[in-house]
Design goal:
The chain is mainly beta and about 575 residues long. It has a domain of about 120 residues: Roll (Mannose-Binding Protein A, Chain A). It is about 10% helix and about 45% strand. The chain has 4 helices and 44 strands. Strands 35, 36, 37, 38, 39, 40, 41 and 42 form an 8-stranded mixed beta sheet that branches. The longest helix has 14 residues. The protein is elongated, with a radius of gyration of 27 Å.
Length: about 575
């Protein structure tokens, strides 16, 4: 079992995508949407995956701070003070920093009256240095949906870019334009807001940044509007395969840095060619029949666009095995996209998502289903990767991709920490090392067969250490027989790898160590238990459990959607 887990962990390195992290930085774009006399409410919803995670939230240009020890698996809302919104078109320190001592996930919620937008705040590890800017023209977008020429005020004539420095150092930023580039220096964790004019192509930086496309008030109807926010993904996360959830009354916008061909989903003429940084909003009439599969000839970024609503699609390369699905209001609609062959093995919390309403997605091996949720849940798959979107209304539609907790499937549940070997660098006695490994959710490692011994050898070779390390063997005080302790259980030794002359007599050593040196064959040595040595700790797999009351009706199939959403799957 250890072999499988370690191989899985190695294969997943550099390929997985999740939203867990220790450090985050974000900003709250301006929300002037209806209703004006109501103060904005800006909130962070933070969920810890380990017990006793200490979380600290601070505002860069303020003395305001929040700090608390959060329970595992229980979302906690942190309401930020008034004035946090980014109004000005200049560089400021109006950013929010979130830090955890253990991995957390973060969602931001911006609300003003009935204008609501949510956004999954990505940890610093997911930020990039090059972002292509979607060529969305606000006036064309509004006229497309209203199908008539409308006067657009100067305040609302275009989208804005919000650029956040993800580093605690100065960062040189280049706005790549069709005309002349703009270069500026962004202070540590500072934020800059720019009004776009349609000539912006990309944001390039020396160090990592977060980039948002936002509009404070997209016209809906009857003099009402809704703020939109689209946190962009770095171009390195682009793909050419997309499963598009079936939502009515939307258009598809495609962003690419080269001329490409798109196909599938009955896109207009079938296989149209799109110029780089195209302004075109695509009609997808086939979404009325259900979810669709789109292919592009080269990597691209796709998003669904509607009035007061922008959602960047999850490409196949960013599908995950497990999602936290935040629900702020009752009656949320959740799209689940899974491989058709394995669609009946999707779980919601601890039970199967039992549904007969799965619809296959044309020209793909995927299916989708729409379910209703009344509370925050975990949706996961034990053997393959899936995509999950969550949408709510207040009364306007908002939402987007759920929060990815783990990219790698596991038959038991939602893995947030895979099993691994770890060197504990603090010298301790054997009993202290044994207790410390238990404290951090693991155990002193003891190879139980030749394969595990070789895995330990490979690991120690990669670490480059040249000193003795504790392993999890010791002698019984009663019988002087060697045993390995796994949790509270004691196991007799069926496999050993003692060095020459080992083990020595009990008086010279009651506990076991390994010396990571190829000349000694990495054999075991007996050592007095009171010796101060570093140790090899095997960290057990940690599964995420949502700490919420369970309802009798966890998820219900939905034939219809809330207003503004379609009933296609």
């Amino acid at each position: 079992m250890l072999t499988i887990l370690l191989i899985t962990a190695m294969l997943g390195q550099g390929q997985s995508w999740d939203s867990l992290g220790l450090n985050f930085v974000t900003a709250f774009p301006e929300n002037i949407a209806f209703y004006y006399p109501v103060n904005p409410v800006n909130t962070l919803k933070i969920t810890a995956v380990h017990v006793d995670a200490v979380v600290r939230v601070s505002i860069s240009d303020s003395t305001w701070t929040y700090q608390d020890t959060l329970p595992a698996g229980k979302p906690v809302n942190v309401t930020l003070p008034l004035g946090i919104e980014k109004y000005s078109l200049v560089q400021t320190l109006q950013t929010v920093q979130i830090r955890g001592t253990e991995p957390i996930v973060v969602q931001s919620i911006s609300q003003r009256g009935d204008s609501v937008q949510t956004n999954v705040v990505q940890p610093l590890k997911n930020l990039g240095t090059f972002y292509s800017i979607p060529a969305l023209n606000y006036k064309n977008m509004i006229n497309t949906f209203f199908q008539s020429e409308r006067n657009i005020s100067s305040r609302c004539r275009s989208f804005r870019l919000v650029i956040i420095n993800g580093e605690d150092m100065g960062n040189l930023i280049t706005i790549v334009k069709k005309t002349k580039n703009i270069i500026f220096r962004l202070d540590p964790y500072a934020v800059l807001q720019l009004q776009t004019d349609g000539t912006e192509i990309a944001v390039q930086s020396d160090y990592t940044v977060a980039v948002m496309l936002t509009h404070p008030c997209v016209e809906i109807s009857g003099c009402r509007c809704n703020m939109v926010v689209n946190q962009l993904y770095p171009d390195t996360q682009w793909d050419s395969r997309f499963a598009v959830p079936g939502i009515l009354n939307v258009r598809l916008h495609l962003t690419s840095s080269t001329n490409i061909i798109a196909s599938g989903g009955n896109i207009e003429s079938g296989r149209p060619t799109f110029e780089a940084y195209s302004l075109k909003l695509l009609s997808l009439p086939s979404l009325m029949l259900g979810s669709q599969f789109i292919n592009t000839s080269d990597p691209a970024s796709l998003r669904l666009v509607s009035l007061g609503f922008i959602v960047e699609l999850i490409p196949l390369s960013r599908f995950s095995a497990c999602y936290l699905v935040p629900v702020n209001l009752t009656g949320a609609k959740v799209f689940v996209i899974a491989e058709t062959e394995y669609r009946n093995s999707v779980y919601i919390d601890g039970g199967l998502l039992s549904s007969t309403k799965w619809n296959t997605i044309n020209d793909s091996e995927y299916s989708s289903v729409l379910v209703s949720l009344d509370a925050t849940r975990v949706i996961w798959h034990p053997s393959t990767k899936i995509a999950v979107y969550v949408f709510e209304e207040s009364p306007h539609l908002y939402g987007g991709p759920a929060i990815s907790l783990s990219a790698n499937p596991d038959p038991v549940g939602c893995v947030v920490v895979p099993s691994k070997l770890n060197i504990i660098l603090t010298p301790q006695t054997w009993p202290e090392s044994h207790q410390y490994c238990k404290l951090i959710g693991g155990e002193l490692f003891s190879p139980s067969n030749k394969t595990e011994q070789m895995e330990m050898v490979d690991f120690l070779n990669s670490e480059g250490l040249n000193e003795r390390l504790w392993i999890g063997l010791r002698r019984s005080l009663l019988t002087l027989e060697w045993y390995r302790q796994k949790g509270k259980e004691v196991h007799t030794m069926t496999y050993t790898s003692w060095g020459t002359g080992e083990p020595r007599v009990a008086a010279e050593g009651m506990c076991a160590s390994v010396f990571p040196n190829s000349r000694t064959g990495f054999h075991w040595q007996s050592v007095p238990c009171c010796a101060q040595l570093k140790s090899i700790c095997f960290i057990n797999t940690h599964y995420f459990t949502l700490d919420l009351p369970m309802s009798n009706d966890r998820a219900s199939n939905s034939n219809g959607n809330a207003k503004g959403n379609g009933n296609g799957n």
